[in-house]
Amino acid sequence: MSAYLVLASIGALLVLLIQGRVPPAVLFTCWAVGYVLLGVTEQQALLTSFSNPALITLLVLMLVSLALERSPLLDRVSDTLLKGRESMASLRLMGVTAFLSAFLNNTAVVGSLLGVISRQGYIPASRLLIPLSYASILGGITTLVGTSTNLVVNSFVINAGLPPLGMFQFTLVGLPVALLCILGLMFSARLLPQNRVQDQETPQSYFLEAQVMADSPLIGKSIEANQLRNLNGLFLLEILRNDRLLSPVSPDEVLQQDDVLVFTGEVEKVQALQRFPGLQLFGNGVDRLLASNLVEVVIAHESELANRTLREVDFRTLFNAGVVGIRRGKRRLTGQLGQIPLRVGDSLLLAVGPDFTDQRNIDRNFHVISGTLQRPKLHKRQSLLAFCGFGIVIALAAASMVPLLNGLLVLLAALLVTRILTLSELRRRFPFELWLIIGSALTVAKALESSGGAQLVADAVRSLSSGYGVYGAFIGVFLITLILTEIVTNNAAAALVFPIGLSTASAFGADPMPFIMAVAFGASACFIIPFGYQTHLMVYSPGRYRMVDYLKTGLPVSLLYSAGVITLVPLMFPF
């Protein structure tokens, strides 16, 4: 397979990633297997990619983070962070978020603070959530373990036969850039909307209620027999019977006199209920009771619901809950809820059953924003053990006394022995898709390099930067990565550009480290478009944002970030 054909196939991969119709894990796996079958790369290279030490380190780190994210620490400091003037509260929030994200998974940090910020009444959440997401990225670029992108780049470095990156090798550039961008955010965040609670639609606007009258022929018959399950645009969510709430509603449930039926969906299609004799519509008389049964959640990036409909996954059976409404950013979605393809970051208003909190798939699929559901927290002693253990592992790795992977494996074993983590929890939350993406991406990168495709692109970059020398080529590699991370994902951008960066450094006879850093920092430079980074999607619906909010706030940050990286990397890592 020639270099040109490999480049054409990479172009097709990029188009499919941008379209977003097929999950990245599926695309990268198919391309990697295809290259092996076509003889572009060897089978051994594919197997080696999935056992890459840096990739295994990333997976173990994410499993250890499952314990750290359950610590009550963030809940306890939230009140202190958010009191006082908005500007100072925002600065404190960004500073703490950046610090925590330097060592913890930034998705976990944002997920832990998301509900706290959404529930607090001091400052409109829309003024804080985008800065929260950006600060988690800025903190992540300062250390090797701060973001999965840095660890992914490290896996490519090791795969290329180069020395692994150090724990604080990113700090020389990352820390000044993070401080510069946080200061810039203090000004650009003023452009964010003030979406206060009273400006948002109330949960009751999602409901339609009807009472079964004494003379109704529906009495004594089941929901199925009365044909109340297949209505035009409406869905029977709950039944209020003698001050008792039945949720979810079984198709075999027999209706009784004075039952209050609660419908959701296209509530404007009230005429669908007019064909049922003895069913009287009335106002929102049970809103207080319903409100005690409501939970608002955001679909997590690792959720099995992404790109699927409620009907496809049988949502009610899976979670013992009914979806009252779906919000995407500032817009409440209308139509038949069961037929709407869901996206990561969508906000769902759920009417939950009594055993909803016992479901074991909640953490993997949702970030809980509001409601009575509380995730199980660590006890004080457990929290202390988890954080102290993690701190010791990071310190020993930074001092080159114990390899990071070894330390994390020991810590993971200790968390399992003390039952802070359980094997069932590890099985539920194992980042299988990320493992597939990165392992396959390593193979794709190897194919791009071995076929000569990366060299062709490097020659083109060298030609285009003619007259600007190696510094111009370095800027070109950084900008290509930045553009790709905005329109696809950060890990995909790193995978596609890394072999090009190495080939470009080789073409100029330069040290590869500045180009490695260009890829690493460029792959984390997602500030303008919300769909390229998971934390942006997490805050998109809770903040009631629009695309333009990210553009107004993120463009100045992106410019400051780019200027800082382009200036500092060549100074700290000479060509």
Automatic annotation (TrEMBL):
* Alphabetical list of InterPro entries matching this protein: Cit_transptr-like_dom, DASS-Related_Transporters, RCK_C, RCK_C_sf
The organism's superkingdom is given as: Bacteria
- Provide GO CC annotations from the record: plasma membrane
Q: For this UniProt entry, which residues form the secretion signal?
A: none
State any GO BP term from the record: potassium ion transport
Q: Name one GO molecular function term.
A: monoatomic cation transmembrane transporter activity
Name of the protein this chain belongs to: Carboxylate transporter
Origin organism of this chain? Oceanisphaera psychrotolerans
